[in-house]
């Protein structure tokens, strides 16, 4: 099976539509449709269920999709290794990360890595934990950095760094006088929280259910910077790991009060890759560098 056919098939699976996949691939929809039908003839089985709104893979299609993703990732790894053998020392690393570790952790790791390996380029996508895991699983990211991710059969956590949640507020805020706070204690004040696809929000919602608490946020956002700004402005309290607000704490802009709730103390930063995948040299090198760098930045 040609790599071109694998790329075409993989794009149709990702897009869920032959027309949209054709647009992404810059080919005619009719040509792409013929390619997909040729694949089905080759296998003797339908690979898609075709509907008015798009296509959905059959069981055979899902099986072939896993093979296609693995083959395309292997091609990328082999090209990287050939480049290295040629002495080009090139490569590209795709990272998908939650926002909270970017400013005070990930960008430092990228900068120090690039000083040593200037031929390696890096792309960084920022999103929530659920989308980080999906990107790694689907082969859209080589490395994922998530917050308190759930176990996944096809995801391998290469590092799990404990990074508990704290109540973040300005030093003059009434609750800042306490040495420790429970989540219940903080809910009498205005609070800011991330939206539901964030790992932080999952932890908060889980604790609210077990403790029978009601969370009525003053601010709900998909921006970690907005949460930091909410706390810095004295508007109320937010919930973040120390690594996320390290610079603000060192500058005296906010304080971090420990939370007593056990669930919130178990928060982690998780570095993830696709289980069973042999990583390209550049990716493996950056992963090792990240393992060495992240723990020193807390």
From TrEMBL:
Residues 1-58 form the HTH lysR-type domain. It comes from the Bacteria. Keywords: DNA-binding, Transcription, Transcription regulation. GO terms for molecular function: DNA binding; DNA-binding transcription factor activity. Coiled coil: none annotated. SUPFAM superfamilies: Periplasmic binding protein-like II (SSF53850), Winged helix' DNA-binding domain (SSF46785). Gene3D superfamilies: 3.40.190.290, Winged helix-like DNA-binding domain superfamily/Winged helix DNA-binding domain. Pfam families: HTH_1, LysR_substrate. InterPro entries: HTH-type_LysR_regulators, LysR_HTH_N, LysR_subst-bd, WH-like_DNA-bd_sf, WH_DNA-bd_sf. Belongs to the LysR transcriptional regulatory family. This is LysR family transcriptional regulator. The lineage of its organism: Bacteria, Pseudomonadati, Pseudomonadota, Alphaproteobacteria, Hyphomicrobiales.
